Amino acid sequence: MRTHLLLILIFVTGCAFIGEDTSKDFFQEELSKDIVSNDGSSVSQDDHYPILINGNFQKEPIDIPKPRQIFSSGQTREVQLRRLGELLWVYVEALPSTSWPITKAFFETSGFPLINSNPESGELKLRYSENIDLKVEVEHGIKEASTEIFVSFYTEGGKLTQDEWVEASQDTLAKLVEYMAESVDSFSGTSLAAQALNDKKKTRIFNLDEKTIIELDLGFDRAWSAVSRALEDGKIQVNDRDREEGFFLVSFNAQDEDSGWFSFLNFQVEANTGLALGSDADFKIIVSTEDSSTKITAEVINSSAGDPESLLSKINELLS
Predict the structure, then answer these.
(1) pLDDT class for 74, splitting at 50, 70, 90?
(2) Superfamily classification of domain 202-318
(3) Which of 101, 83, 88, 97 is nearest to 183 (CA)?
(4) Cα–Cα distance between 214 and 239 in angstroms, integer?
């Protein structure tokens, strides 16, 4: 019996070696000759995805424009209380779907009775006092992956003026900032119900008639402030500015961003972000508002400065 089993085992294992071993034949492979088309021209490469233009297949390589940059906030998760005039809001470097459950948890434990909440619109409504309601709005911020949180007060007659309630707003938002700062870094969850808020971005960048445009879903005051902050954060020299006319004159050279020794260590000379009157500007940044949105464009003043695309890309990166 054992002899039969041994013979069967030898037969089965030996079958693996029956026939010619071709496992190393690919070492002997050679490139075939170029393909010759009907018109006598040779094709040195086989294009599996040819591009058809005006009925003819394109043979020459085509330059494909690189996709636009999308800037994220990284892992800093910064939380700030910001103010512009009488307008107060909380800025959080996290997606609205992450900020929503934290904001909701704060107000649910704040002692104000919850009237209703809508994660799709990012709105909370609470009873602040006997005759006054508190409305909280969670929105996508200007910057990629950021949140802005606003509060306002209402009575049966409508919204109360901001100057009457600026102290109450500041107190409420200051406490929210503390709560957010303690929670957002350790909170890794996200609200599926609030995912729609992530798509309601306030910033868009696009081309129109070969001209790059940044569009903000903001009024002029906030848009002007955001551009001013971006120029300051980017160390872009401002030669002149006119708020009434809505423009900045700036000096900017994209090559200077990475030039210089030890640039890989991020050693950069601090640029003057104040007004450099008398200096020659390279670009004119135009801030113009129509209806409820504001557009940011750039025009070349100094022809040797290059294309304004790099400047607008830098501003778009730093908008917040």
Answers:
(1) very low
(2) Kinase associated domain 1, KA1 (3.30.310.80)
(3) 101
(4) 21
